[in-house]
């Protein structure tokens, strides 16, 4: 009979020796049997199953019913039966056929099949016969071996020996803030948590502090202050925990030369050998070094007096107490704040808060002014490969910019350039590192969509890491690739000085892909916030984020009142022109009304990291926590 297939028979008997069991014991037994469960679902399945809801206990038969409800996935059982000659046992030869036909295993299917039987078949007798029971098959389908995400991409697999500018680099903006930009507290936690997410470019906003000790906070605003020294100490501690590849400290420097000197001292004494203080190699370079060559190094990005050549020539000379000066022409529109974005607070913070919400952006006004920049030479000399240079135009950069100079461009201006002169932008980023930052009017730390700047090859698309939402989901999904190391090699067609790539006109070139996703079912989805039981009316949106032509969203129908095991069995097909830049996002929502959905969970990954075949899709909450065992079950193929 069916019952005999479940090995829970034997261990369960023990638990029921003294009669019935309660919910608590039921949970413990499920853990013992290795059944992933969500407490809310089990609680309601238990209530529904128990014949004596008053005593709150169940019999062994009732336990088996609960077990079946949670573990017996009909859709997986159907799949099992379609390859099992007797609908009970899957002989190795049929498993091999399944792997070849459905899971796109090309090589060594025999060896993999026997490995899977050894790994997942719990009944010894069946394992010895080189077969798989449904129980074993279920374990395999729920395992890491059936994740949608390619295992090969969970380690660093890309060539890390290209110049730095050939990579997308995980970058954060206003790293120290954890909530609101105007009143939110500055916490060191922001730095460590960004580093733990693989971020490789941190922004540090530095100001003169009391007792000649520089402080870090968001200029002119009420965010609390922390000293520059403690920030560098935290960075020293967490810099290379998650990634070996170089870390860039993007200094937002508002300090007097006197305190800049103190900053330089802290950088040198606290970071020690980690700090990059001179060029790599014996001869003067003509190009940026690679992430590989800069492993375990921390680079300072700041303005710099003079050239890198001059720094190299001065090497070994004491620059203590010297101040360098240069003049910078600033042309700015109202929307693109001075160098970086800093909302300026008038006297009364209350007033500003109200204004920040109400103010509609004024029409951009051009003003020109000349700014004198004073730099402590000690700090200036620490800037090697990442000299901050004011962006004027692509033309100006082509004629004047050095390989070690990089630009920061505000999102509004960058968006305009991307729309009007996309290929020129791609040519610029193929040559120089370009950083994009959010406009200063984003007082609530909201984020812009990073995709449109990745589309033109911008390396550092800085986001507020503390602000959850679609934008950070795209960021986290993209940088999961290449072992979460924070560096992704740009696709070949975006590299090199002659690239003709234009994200707004992608016809004719590249390797378009047809992607099909059969969304089969959901499993233990997070119940709706609004439901007092374990219910929701779930639907799934599948979105493609990439070049404009690839941007598309499709949606399943709504399954009423079932978050435990909704079944859709709907197929979606996408024609994707530039698969190398495409991200796929699954968003699970609860339909509250015809006009409103409640977010339940999501998963985002690069198309090129997707496995084919029957796979499960893990889900993450708005705050980025994994919602195990909540998942989607899908069948994927593309060519
Ligand atoms: C990695 O890239 C470097 C720089 O382009 C190149 O010289 C090298 O041959 C590449 N290595 C591999 C294994 O492709
Ligand atoms: C798109 O690029 C192709 C060549 O790659 C060109 O023939 C065509 O005119 C371009 N279309 C537009 C709208 O620019
Ligand atoms: C659940 O509802 C509460 C109150 O309505 C709300 O604050 C919270 O954000 C909701 N959670 C989710 C995940 O939507
Ligand atoms: C699911 O859809 C596929 C084709 O899209 C079909 O062959 C199959 O029979 C469907 N399964 C169920 C259970 O409806």
Automatic annotation (TrEMBL):
Species this protein is from: Terrapene triunguis
Composition skew (Acidic residues), residue ranges: 330-340
Residue span(s) of domain PI-PLC Y-box: 379-495
Subcellular location: Cytoplasm, Perinuclear region; Nucleus
MF terms in GO: phosphatidylinositol-3-phosphate binding; phosphatidylinositol-4,5-bisphosphate binding; phosphatidylinositol-4,5-bisphosphate phospholipase C activity; phosphatidylinositol-5-phosphate binding
Any one biological process term the GO annotation gives: lipid catabolic process
Top enzyme category: hydrolase
PANTHER family per the UniProt record, alphabetical: 1-PHOSPHATIDYLINOSITOL 4,5-BISPHOSPHATE PHOSPHODIESTERASE ZETA-1, PHOSPHOINOSITIDE-SPECIFIC PHOSPHOLIPASE C FAMILY PROTEIN
Function: The production of the second messenger molecules diacylglycerol (DAG) and inositol 1,4,5-trisphosphate (IP3) is mediated by activated phosphatidylinositol-specific phospholipase C enzymes. In vitro, hydrolyzes PtdIns(4,5)P2 in a Ca(2+)-dependent manner. Triggers intracellular Ca(2+) oscillations in oocytes solely during M phase and is involved in inducing oocyte activation and initiating embryonic development up to the blastocyst stage.
Catalysed transformations (reactions): a 1,2-diacyl-sn-glycero-3-phospho-(1D-myo-inositol-4,5-bisphosphate) + H2O = 1D-myo-inositol 1,4,5-trisphosphate + a 1,2-diacyl-sn-glycerol + H(+)
Gene: PLCZ1
Tagged with keyword Nuclease: no
Cofactor: Ca(2+)
Keywords: Calcium, Cytoplasm, Developmental protein, Fertilization, Hydrolase, Lipid degradation, Lipid metabolism, Nucleus, Transducer
Enzyme nomenclature, EC number: 3.1.4.11
Nucleus listed as a keyword: yes
Domain C2, first and last residues per copy: 495-621
First-listed, main subcellular location of the protein, grouped into a coarse class: cytoplasm
Positions of the UniProt region annotated as Disordered: 330-370
Protein name in UniProt: Phosphoinositide phospholipase C
